[in-house]
Structures are given as structure tokens and as C-alpha cells.
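Lecture 7 notes: from sequence to structure.

We start with a single chain of 400 residues. Read the sequence below before looking at the structure.
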Amino acid sequence: MNTFLASPYLFEREYMTNTQKLFHRISRRDPLFSLIIGLLTLFTLMIPTGFTSPYPKGSSAWVKARIIETNNSLVKTIGPIKEGAQQLEIRIMTGKFKGRTLAATNLLMGKLELDKFFSPGDTAFVVLDLSPDGTEIIHPNVIDHYRLDATILLMAAFSLVLILFARWTGLKALLSFVFSGAVIIKLLLPAILRGVDPLLITFAVVALLTFVIIFLVGGFTQKGLTAFVGSMGGVAITSVLAILFTSLFKIHGAVRPFTETLLYQGFDFLNLPHLFMAGIFLASSGAVMDLSMDIAAAMDEVRQKHPAISRADLIRSGFTVGRQVVGTMTTTLLLAYTGGYTALMMTFMSQGIPPANIINMIYVSAELVHTMVGSFGLVLVAPVTALAGGFILVQHQHKG
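Now the structure, written as C-alpha cells:
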């Protein structure tokens, strides 16, 4: 073969070999990367949000308390609704006041989503208002049923099952789970409350989480790089669609629970439409990562079984896998989002409101935009990942 004609192929083959060696060297440092993310997670968890209680430090304390006795004589029951005041006798179970028995009042507002009703033997989460020196209890505030123990049990069971099933990969998945929660709670939400544009900071956080989750779980491999490129392409498309259709549907952003409350708390500078848009691609980013990793893993498996496969054939295989997976993933996204507003739809349906009226209601339109834009981005991430995989996984073409 003519040296001049062969040189492009030799260059591409040498480039492929060097790239594979680079990924191999990086993948050997996978435990180091996991350690770094673990340390970053601990550091992130220790970052203060900057938002604290307006009350002086030491003026209150939360405790676990047992409901000893209830008096419902002042409670008025109207169907499923209870109004009035439930008188309680509680015994503190934790903290320096452990063993103290106190009288408390549980006010009922007649709203099932906000009210709580206690029975003897229940445990409650109680906040104690203390004297200035912290030695006496001024007033006990019974907040709600105590759920911290159940939360810890649920998280422990989830972590155990995940690690037992997936072992090292499960441990990395758990680490990525905790890291994601820490970044959202400690970085994303405080930044938005301080006035950072929700679209910009959410896109940056999603990019960070996508990088960490994919390379932490999938490793620093060509497969991981393919999934990352495909995911970011899908997130970018979803972001553009969220901006476009939120404006087209004229969604003002205050349709989410407690959004309007933020305005009354002094955060009237918040850009509510941008907050709504950011929520769309943040919510769909997990499904986008899942789909892109599925396609990348399938293409990598095909490449390993058929090392001589051409770029075009591998891309076609990626498209085939994408078509099959998208069919179920879009429905999965629809079902996941629908579960959140089932009661809303049932309320309108029970009143016999025509479908055209329902669709034009802002609450329904907001959920429609959320669902369809997320599904739209999910469909388009498949071809983006397939194209990226063709160029990343196959870095040379055989010459005839």
C-alpha cells in the first residue's frame, strides 16, 4: 500500500491506541476519583447555607416526645375534616429534658394536607421554646409525627440492598446519590435564594452532577465519555425547549407549591418563570443520563464483540437501541410525572369540566409542559448519544 495513502489510517490507528491507553490509565485511578468525590461530598455537607433561624441561638431545641394522653373535646369533626384544638400530654424522650411531662396543644385548621392528628402512643417531633438561659421550657410546639427514625431505617435498607446487589458499583452509586443531594441542598438552592439566575446555576449543577454520576458509576472509559456527551446534549436540548414552551404557554412560574410563599418572605427578586424552566430540565436530567448510559453501554458492547465494525454501522446500532429504549422511557417519564397531579385531574374530572377547559388551566398547562418537554428531550438524547458514540468508540475507519 502506498505510504501516503496509508498514513491517515496509521495516524488514526495510532490515535485510537493512544486514546485507549489514556482511558485505561485513567480508569485505573477509579478508586482515587471515588475518594475525591467522597471528600467533596463531606466538604459540601459542611458548607453552611447562609440561611438561619431569626430566633437567637439556644432559644429553642427539638426533641422526640411520646404522646401520653389526648383530649379531643375541643375538636369538631365535619366529614373527613377536623377543626379546633387537640389537647395533648407528652413525655420528652430525648435531650436534657428527657422524662419531663408537658401539656401541649395541637391546632387543627381543617386542611388535611397540613393538619396532623395524634393518638396515645404516637411519637411526635416537638420544638421547645426555652428561656434565655436555656434551662426552662417556656412552650412546647408539637410540629408533626416523628419520622426521623423511619427515614434513617429506609435509607439504611436502601443502601444495604444497593451495595449487596451491585457491590463496588453500588457503593459508587450510593456516593453519587449523596453527592447529588448535598450539591442541590447546599449549593443550588442557596444560590438561587441569593439571586443567581435559576437557569444558569441549574444548568451548571446538572453538568457537574452528570459528570460525577456518569464517570463515578461508569468509570473513565470511552463508554462513559459517550454517555456524558449524549447526556449534556439532551440536557441542552431540554433547556432550550423548556425556555421556548414556557414562554409559548405563558406559564408565570408561580404554579408550584410554596413558590408564592417565597415572594412574601422577601424573595420577590426571584425569577419565577426561570425557576419553573430550571425545574423541568433538572427533573428530566436523571432519565436523560439513564437513557444515554443505556445506549452507550449497548454500543460499547457491540464494538467489543465486533472490533472491526464501521462507524456508520455502530451509529445505526445505536439508533436501533435508542428507538427501543425511548419507547418505554417516555412512558416511564409520563407515568412518573402523572403520579404527581392525579388528584388535580380527578378534581376537574369529578366536576365534569370539558377537556378543552382543563387543558387551558394554568396548573394543567404547567404539568403538560413539564411532561412533554422532558419527554421531548428524552427522545432527542438517543440520536445525540448514538452519533457521539460513533465518533468516540470508533476512532478509525478501515480503508479499502
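The chain has eleven helices and six strands. Keep this in mind for problem set 3.
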